[in-house]
Amino acid sequence: MGQSFTGRLLGVVVRDLRCSVSALSLSVALGSCLLLTVDAAAQTSSPPASATRTPSELPQVDVTAPKPRSSAAARSSETQKRQSTRSNTRRPVAAPAAAVADRQGQGDQRGVATPPNSSGVAASASRLGLTPRETPASVEVVGADTIREQGYHTTVDTVKGATGVTAGDAPNDVAYAMRGFQGNQINVTYNGINIGPTGFTALTMETFNLDRVEFLKGPSSLVSGQGAVGGAINFVTKAPHTGPITQEAFFGFDNRGSIRSGYGSGGSTKIDGLDYRFDISKSREVGFIDDTDTKNLHVSGQLNYRLTDTFKVFAATEFKDYQAKLYEGTPLVTSAYSGAFATSGIVSGNKISDYNLSALNNVTIDSRTLSTNYNVLDGHKTIKESWVRGGFEWAATNDVTVRSQFYNYNASRDWYNNEVIAFNANTNQVDRERFYVHHNQNMVGNNTDVTWNSNILGMDNRLVTGFEVYHLDFARPGAASIAPPDQVSLVDPVRGYYGTLQTQRQTAIIDSFAINLEDRLKITNNFALIGGLRYNPFTLDRTSVDKFGATKSGFPYSASWDPVTGRIGYTWEAVPGLTFYSQYATASDLSVGSLFLLSPTQKLTLTSARSYETGVKNLLWDGRAEWTLSLFDIERSNVYSAQAGQRLNLAGKMKSQGVELSGAVRPTPESKVWANVAYVNARYADYDFTGGTYSGNTPPNIPSLVVNGGASYRFINPGWLPVELGFSVRHVGDRFTTDANVVTMRAYTTADVFAFVDIPKSPVFPTVDNTRVTFRVRNVTDKKYAVWSDPNYPDQIFLGAPRTYEIETSFKF
């Protein structure tokens, strides 16, 4: 989409909003000032700064909304009544808007349980306790029911179902892309807490322990901190509920020998006011590439204790253990060498190897290498993570609520493998090079926010003031010297072992403080102004020593930043269920590399990003249908781009314009149809270098078109067990492997089919309320395709999984 369309449209909307604001009362005029402040801060902060950020959202503990104060006699009578019935009946609990999100993962049964799921509350999109329809941004929630129905086993599977989101496993770890941006420009948070750059910290998790996954599109530093240029993804763990204890379990396997299982339990205990949740899941996935088994263990638990009607405390803990034998990619090979084994439809283009400079010319993927692993035999990746969180929620008055959360996060990550896999056209061999790095990360922090509901000149107003502080200690032992590069054959390689290793050490300490302000002013019952500001000063202290323990040149050093980011917008419910919105937002992130790798010679500046967005959200047909439409224009300045061998080039600016449309409908009680489509025009500007220019080129891994869709029908006949049949389809357009745009990962379309059989309670298993047996076939056409490429290793790509057959049995009791 060109600037003449999206840019002018969004600009007019925002300018009209400014004019409207200036004509209203003093409080509304403050919204206009807020917009100007955000804009000025994005352009004039010196330097535009960023930091890893930990949002202030609590894990949605349910606290009863404060009731009108009653007399002492009435309170005494109420107390005696509660005491007399405590042993038999649990007092019903009303939850504030912000707490509703805990139950949204179970699906909004009044509407459609598929994305965009706009009846839920996405706490990571706003601290104001708003639903996606009430938020002036593109927000999507994938709940537990959708995860279960669509068979999203892992977090990578789940994000691919969202509108316009793609994902892949890069050599270091998981990478996501949306709205033309990828990697560290997409924030990943856990229960609203940001633990650092995605490329360093993102972990593929099983989804059984999750209640939902939340998506906030576009620049969103206000909510999720530095780096959220393209958007943010928040993974929310299952939390306790008040009521009878419910339990669930599942067991599944596939034709490759993968096994998954899980058990969860939660509800109210015999101790009045004490609720719990416990989940454990474990998997062993056998990869479609040789010798790439993955083991994943996730244990999570939380206790909520209500001391009074208005005060509640909670404690939560999690542990994750991830062990994998790595697949680092499949090499691009010259078609002349592969001959009859050259494939079509996976990649195309002509290039010179970035690693060994041999002329690959017309490239292909050799059909003999579709399952070949070129990694060393003792290569591995292991990650262990632990969380401890605790805090309280206090309804201090009828209009003021205080939430506070303390947390401690620890991670140990280890990569010990071969990462370069580059075909050499001069030798017809595959060049390899080793990689080693270890992370020790410890992070402690507190997020506190105060919500104040008030009335200004007859208009309802909600103000949330958040305070965030954390201390992050990061140690990174890396390879100082390793076994020299080697070569193996393209077909049936003798993989060998890692060899000798010497290490050196780097450290980074980050101290951060942030103040967040968010406000919603309802001008009328159906028109609201919503805005916010974030001020986030932070400091970085770095050290680096060589393999002999000697401090390297330029170290230690310290740097500091104090960025200001924010957003302002409006929502207008023109008719019941039909909402128009627009917003202007800013964000910032590190311009070069990562805070954990930044060297003294690199520019200690931050990027600045701004976004215009407008759209429509509609819930209709008595909640049986919903759809959303959004148009956006994003520009990111002061950009550096990764090149082969982890070099960096000044790329100037990145521009992204596009449109997203998603919807779902239940035509009948037995049927469901859902679909989403995203079109984006992402490109570089002012990207010039000696000998050429990449201006106008598309960033790596960014497709112009992503389409998802699916449908299901439930057959219910007397005398027969309920059976549901369904399918889903995914199309991803062409993507480039590097900024040069010389090699294309071709567009692909895959389809899955599934069937459920629901077995109700029976005399055989009287304690089991429901048993579901699921049969699923993934990639039914066995499409061969490329799913991702890491620009740091441009001579290799990652293949998508072939056809897979699965069966799973789940129980609720």
UniProtKB/TrEMBL annotation:
Pfam families: Plug (PF07715), TonB_dep_Rec_b-barrel (PF00593). It comes from the Bacteria. Residues 132-232 form the TonB-dependent receptor plug domain. Keywords: Cell outer membrane, Ion transport, Iron, Iron transport, Membrane, Receptor, Signal, TonB box, Transmembrane, Transmembrane beta strand, Transport. It is a multi-pass membrane protein. Residues 44-137 are annotated as: Disordered. InterPro entries: Beta-barrel_TonB, Beta-barrel_TonB_sf, Plug_dom, Plug_dom_sf, TonB-dep_rcpt-like. Residues 44-56, 65-77, 90-101 have a biased composition (Low complexity). Residues 349-780 form the TonB-dependent receptor-like beta-barrel domain. Its main location: membrane. It is found in: Cell outer membrane. PANTHER family: FERRICHROME IRON RECEPTOR-RELATED, FERRICHROME OUTER MEMBRANE TRANSPORTER_PHAGE RECEPTOR. Belongs to the TonB-dependent receptor family. This is TonB-dependent receptor. It comes from Bradyrhizobium denitrificans.
